[in-house]
Amino acid sequence: MNLSDSQTGGSMPRRVSAMEAVLSHLRSAIERGEYAVGDKLPSEAELCRSLEVSRPVLREALRALQTMGLTVSRTGKGTFVVSTGPVVDPTFGDYAASDLIEVRRHVEIPVAGYAAVRRTPEDLDHLAHLLDRMERETDTTAWVAMDTLFHLAVAQAAQNPVFRRVIEEIRDALARQSAFLNELGGRREQSNREHRAIVEALIDRSAHDATEAMSHHLDRVETTLTAIVRPEGLDSPENTNTPTEGETPA
Fold it and tell me: Where, if anywhere, are coiled coils annotated (predicted)?
């Protein structure tokens, strides 16, 4: 079985990375019960050989399985299945995705409004420089690092150190989530457009437009995350942790 080549699918074909293909294969095998809870997955060497992919690609897929809560990696022992899914609420670092998006909505949306009113020319220059670099960047790891810097810079522009401290606290989780969404959801170009809309609102000193732009950004983050962890056919009311259904955690 060769999963190393990109694939396409759906009415609007999107190139699927080798990592996505490996993740889909392993996730399906787990959710079909081919590996039961407590089972150990084949070794990395065995999986690389059978799937015909490189070790870095396989490790990215294994990390995604762990983020989804399907497996756990035990140093020196291997990767073990801890749930056969479907995934309900992935974890990014110390925080569940649902907790992360809830806090982000309560913090980053009003922060964008304050930033529109309080930003300095230096804040705008810094944000514009970050945007330009992000739009040119092709390396996912570098882009993710700048993504977290962007959200910190918006908090800094609000001129309240407490806001920045909150974003600093969840910075690692934001980076993990951003990497997850970019690897599996192809979010980078869309995120760049959403970030630019936020900065344009800050330039215009429009608190209304800034909060709307940040709200839209977080909506798209959550929508993409939901599509990854609860694809069509797996979504159901009992799998929803938020108080309301729909689009209401980079």
Answer: none
CATH code that applies to domain 91-229: 1.20.120.530
CA-based nearest residue to 116, from 207, 209, 197 = 207
Contacts of 68 (CB under 8 A, 6+ apart): 27, 85, 87, 90, 229
Q: Which fold has domain 18-81?
A: Arc Repressor Mutant, subunit A (1.10.10)
User: Domain boundaries in the chain?
Assistant: 18-81, 91-229
Counting every residue written for the chain, the total comes to: 250
pLDDT band at 244 (very low <50, low <70, confident <90, very high): very low
Indicate if the pLDDT at residue 238 is higher than 50: no
The structure's pTM equals 0.78
